[in-house]
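Figure-free illustration: sequence to structure, shown twice.
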Amino acid sequence: MAKLNLFDKFVFFLNSIAATTLLLSYLLLYVEPKRFAFVSVLSLTVPFLIIVNLLFVIYWLLKVKKQLFLSLIVLLIGFNYVTSLYKFSTSKQLESPENIAVMNYNVRLFNLFKWIPDISVAKDISEFISDKKPDIISMQEYRHDDGLLLKGYYKFEMLSGDKIRNGQAIFSKFPIINKGSIEFPNTFNNAIFVDVVKGRDTIRVYNVHLQSLKIDASKDPLKNETSENLVKRVGNTFRMQQAQADLFLEHKAKCSYKIIVCGDLNNTAYSYVYNSIKGDDLKDTFVEAGNGFGRSFDFKFFPVRIDFIMVDDHFEINGFKTFNVKLSDHFPIMSTVKVK
């Protein structure tokens, strides 16, 4: 530190705070929100902390200072965290006639309240899906809309609410032989599932929509709410998400079929609920086959990935893509998988 001028000493002080905070955040995968809700809120800041520490590495590298090793070592320790935000490898795209294309899309009620002006969202989503030709589609914040025209699909939907009936839906080109829902208490959010038959294989497809943080991506979350209230509200939401994830895992444990899990977890890949749902038996298809930023939510401040497609070890993951289609506040994601 003796060779640093006053300004660089201040920069290194800030660097130390950012590096320490990121290092501590690596433990959040194992911190139960119901016990430490306040601490678990930190998981939302991990993408920001990764980017900030990368900037500190670049700053010290340009100044040829050994202080670059602080953030560099912390980033290397959490390399799996970095690759959950950004994949440096090229996207894996293996073609096979046995591939199953699985899409997940939070459709935001098909623009019911005209968040996006002068656009027929249901019609445009229909055309997008017809172009991409997924075999299975998992939708959250779904409602019936005459503009949604999807041909050649079996469908299961579970809707609730009085004024605006909405919920989740699964579309499948493969016959559905069983279906059901996992009810979450005191909320309109839930999880649904279908069992589909492809050839000799029966596959369980889950569509999971955990409790929403209710943060408007187009606005500053602190503009109309104090930071204290925001942290308290998010902490309460994380506790609900943990209880919902536990209900899902209890249901999933009874399934003997090959499993695909899709959904909007309303939380990041650095959270307890993501870690508990993924567990040791599921693979995150973006981590295995994606590239670039895993951005699935249109948050204006930094890349956020809260939508996921996971599969168990019965599947090979042959591709993943995020589509920059602005028909919702989420971006559609699609993975191609093949039964081994």
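We now fold a second protein in the same way, so the two outputs can be compared directly.
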Amino acid sequence: MRRITRIATVGVASAALALGATACGGKSSSDAGSDKDNPKAAIAYDIGGRGDQSFNDAAYAGLEKAKADLGVQTSEAEPSEGEGDPDKVQRLTQLARAGNNPVIGVGFAYAPAIAEVAPKFPKTTFGLIDDTSKTGKNIANLVFNEEQGSYLAGVAAAKVTKTKTVGFIGGVETPLIKKFEAGFAQGVKDTNKDVNVKVQYLTQPPDFGGFSKPDLGKAAAEGQLDAGADVIYSAAGLAGSGAIEATSKAKKWSIGVDSDQYNQQGLAAYRDYILTSVTKDIPDSVFNLIKSVKDGKPQSGEIRYGLDKDGVGLADSNPAYTKMTDVTAAVAKAKADIIAGKITVKTAP
């Protein structure tokens, strides 16, 4: 029978118990790994955890697909409280020692922990989403051209704005989130140089609360709305839901991120004003990695998902968006030009 195990936190006590099991005859680090007849896979969530209607939920969708289609037993681990989520190493160690293969860290913040844990479990594949800084024979770097999808969002925003002011809200000012900003701003300006782009980040590293606090996103959106913005694009994880709420209540357009947020149940009350979303095919990246391990041909190294393979894109779930034929035509042309190499999208503002 298939099952899902959720691990709220992995602290020192849990790690000690795991080490004790190894000393008493359990699997050692070097021979840990899934039973081929009883495959198991796990994901460790980023800040905000499952239920963020965005990044983490996209990874969960891939895990659920693997459970349904491949018969894989699945485990999930939530982030712990505390600045920087300090228990990542223990969490990944426990998941690997339990026989999960692959073990997937959702987000670039897992890079140092995976670099530390992966060499101790050479027969286990570790997936690292959104980061290429840490590599290894058993590490698969699942990365995306976020700037390309964000460029399309910028085209759409520039076409629909009536005030010629649009907003970008980033959760935390990191190089990854600045890729979203760069692509969006370039798409806006290439479409209409007279449109003003207001940019705001919710927190600065090492404070990553900008990915998990909807109130921060809501306040930032309210400020941008007061300054005249009538389209706001948020790349802020769970905090982005607050921006979507504020923008919707003002009857202005929001643009979602990572998941197709028009279809997220937790945002259903605001969906009429979610124009579109910049999607990342995180579900398939998770599923494909799990399947590769199950098939005995585990992925490793950089696996990149770009616009050319629909690894990033712009959602068209909102009927109001699909009826804007001038907007969708402009987006389609921009997509074709990016794929053809006629447009090179910047990765930094």
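Summary for the second example: The first strand starts at residue 4 and ends at 7.
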